């Protein structure tokens, strides 16, 4: 199997951390340079219609071009350790929190970067006001996490999951928008340090 990625991007990092937690290492990687437009070539669009990374290429030629779908594939392929929940209730809560993170943290972080940074200026029409609104949304979600972590070790109680991986990568990537945890974020800092201390964080 082969994964197309840009290593510094947050979504490919989610997949690498997920695979490290699973102990899956027999994967090849191919770097795709988003800044030079390698992801917008007809050849790459043939395997990733929206020109996004990561993309998983299976041995039979099938392409899976969505981060959470890739992680779900490996969850089904190798169920242990389970990262999408261990019982129906937990699976529902993992899905809930992962969607909270995707819609209110991960996507706004990306939109803030795309609409306020010169990095994307030549690739798309930027709407700075939208980027700043997304920045506010990210700050709001961090405050929500701070309250949640006062009573929870992870996003789903005491269970580490794909939702934590998503939130961890979003928080680390928020630095490109000059968004960082403050001294007042005691609970979220504790969670972040626990995430950073896992061996998979270095994947």
Characterization of this structure:
This protein is an alpha+beta fold and 203 residues long. It has helices at residues 10-22, 42-45, 67-77, 88-116, 128-148, 162-173, 186-196, and strands spanning 2-5, 28-31, 55-57, 63-64. Strand 1, helix 1 (10-22) and strand 2 (28-31) form a beta-alpha-beta unit. The mean pLDDT is 97.
Number of helices: 7
**If you average the pLDDT, what whole number results?**
97
Largest sheet: 4 strands, mixed
User: Helix- and strand-based class?
Assistant: alpha+beta
> What topology, given as strand order, has the largest sheet?
2-1-3-4
Q: How much strand content do the residues show?
A: 5-15%
Order of helices and strands: EHEHEEHHHHH
Shape: globular
Unreliable spans are none
Radius of gyration: 17 Å
Helical proportion, percent range: 40-55%
The number of distinct β-strands equals 4
Distance between the termini: 17 Å
Task: Lay out the secondary structure.
Layout: E1 2-5, H1 10-22, E2 28-31, H2 42-45, E3 55-57, E4 63-64, H3 67-77, H4 88-116, H5 128-148, H6 162-173, H7 186-196
Parallel strand pairs: 1-2
Antiparallel strand pairs: 1-3, 3-4
Short overview:
The chain has helices at 10-22, 42-45, 67-77, 88-116, 128-148, 162-173, 186-196, and strands spanning 2-5, 28-31, 55-57, 63-64. With 203 residues, it is of the alpha+beta class. Helix 4 (88-116) runs parallel beside helix 6 (162-173).
Keywords:
single chain; 203 residues; 7 helices; 4 strands; 4-stranded mixed β-sheet; alpha+beta
């Amino acid at each position: 199997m082969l994964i197309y990625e840009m290593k510094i991007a947050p979504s490919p990092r989610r997949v690498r951390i997920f695979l490290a937690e699973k102990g899956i290492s027999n994967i090849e990687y191919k770097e795709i340079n988003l800044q030079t437009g390698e992801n917008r070539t007809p050849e790459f669009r043939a395997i990733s219609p929206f020109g996004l990374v990561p993309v998983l290429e299976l041995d039979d030629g099938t392409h899976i071009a969505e981060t959470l779908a890739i992680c779900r594939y490996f969850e089904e392929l190798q169920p242990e350790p389970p990262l999408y929940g261990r019982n129906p209730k937990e699976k529902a809560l993992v899905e809930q929190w992962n969607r909270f993170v995707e819609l209110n943290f991960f996507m706004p972080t990306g939109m803030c970067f795309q609409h306020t940074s010169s990095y994307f200026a030549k690739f798309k029409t930027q709407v700075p006001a939208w980027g700043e609104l997304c920045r506010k949304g990210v700050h709001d979600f961090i405050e929500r996490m701070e309250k949640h972590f006062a009573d929870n070790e992870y996003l789903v109680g005491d269970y580490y999951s794909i939702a934590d991986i998503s939130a961890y990568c979003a928080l680390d990537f928020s630095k490109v928008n000059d968004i960082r945890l403050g001294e007042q974020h005691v609970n979220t800092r504790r969670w972040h340090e626990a995430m950073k201390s896992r061996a998979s964080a270095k994947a």
